[in-house]
Write a structure and sequence with these properties.
Elements (H helix, E strand, L loop, with lengths): L5 E11 L9 E7 L21 E4 H11 L3 E5 L9 H11 L2 E6 L11 E4 L15 H10 L2 E7 L4 H11 L8 E5 L4 H18 L2 E2 L3 H6 L6
Parallel strand pairs: 2-4, 4-5, 5-6, 6-7, 7-8, 8-9
Antiparallel strand pairs: 1-2, 1-3
The chain binds iron/sulfur cluster.
Iron/sulfur cluster (SF4) binds next to loops.
């Protein structure tokens, strides 16, 4: 069957999942171009505008993914929820038999087919502007999907906002909430990890590594 929906694709590559509960698992990453936020510490500046990616049909993306032959697939961005062909892409990945993680900043809810929604709401430390956190949209993911919530933390004061967001959500299991150190370089990662780990122990959150930063710094395609 020929699939015609097209997507702006920044890159497709095989690496280790760096964050969340599947950290360390070999995965294929499909990075879609385009995001409506501009986080101060964004590490994918090359995928923020749709024009930065290559137009590919869903069937072309699926062909690339098949060549890598890996069960775990991560659809990421940019912000995948902005991509028109997302439903079709995820549906085809599921038809392939992939375990699909969808990464999102959680600002928009869309009914999609995937195995895990990995939500990373952007706190004030991202300086992404008003409305960066959409509690109603996050709640729908929490209600309808297997999910994890990952917060990028820079300092202790960020925890107030984490708790405020969690306080507005219903039914969030604490062990699905992860804190990750804000870091774009290995040096920053090492500097902040101990402090964020301490916050996790004290507050009962999970610590999420950021293996991509620890292992490869800001190198693209990793
Ligand atoms: S939401 Fe993600 S991709 Fe978009 S600017 Fe923020 S960090 Fe970058």
């Amino acid at each position: 069957m020929k699939l015609e929906n097209s997507l702006s694709v920044s890159e497709i590559f095989c690496s280790l999942q760096g964050e969340g509960r599947l950290a360390g698992v070999v995965s294929v990453f499909v990075r879609l171009a385009g995001c409506d936020l501009r986080c101060r510490w964004c590490d994918t500046g090359y995928a923020l505008r749709r024009e930065q990616g290559c137009e590919m049909t869903v069937s072309q993306v699926i062909e690339q993914v098949k060549k890598i032959d890996c069960e775990q697939v991560v659809v990421t961005g940019g912000e995948p929820m902005l991509a028109e062909g997302l439903e079709e892409l995820l549906g085809e990945l599921k038809r392939l038999g992939s375990y699909v993680t969808l990464e999102t900043n959680g600002r928009r809810f869309r009914q999609v087919v995937c195995d895990l929604v990995s939500i990373s709401p952007k706190l004030d430390n991202a300086q992404a502007g008003a409305g960066a956190v959409n509690v109603e949209a996050i709640q729908r993911f929490v209600d309808d999907y297997d999910y994890q919530l990952k917060f990028v933390v820079e300092q202790e004061a960020d925890l107030e906002q984490v708790e405020r967001v969690l306080g507005q959500l219903k039914g969030v299991e604490r062990d699905r909430v992860m804190l990750m150190p804000q870091a774009r370089t290995k040096v920053e990662y090492r500097r902040r990890s101990g402090e964020v780990a301490r916050m996790c122990v004290e507050k009962g959150f999970r610590f999420s590594p950021r293996l991509q930063v620890e292992l490869w710094g800001t190198r693209r395609g990793r």
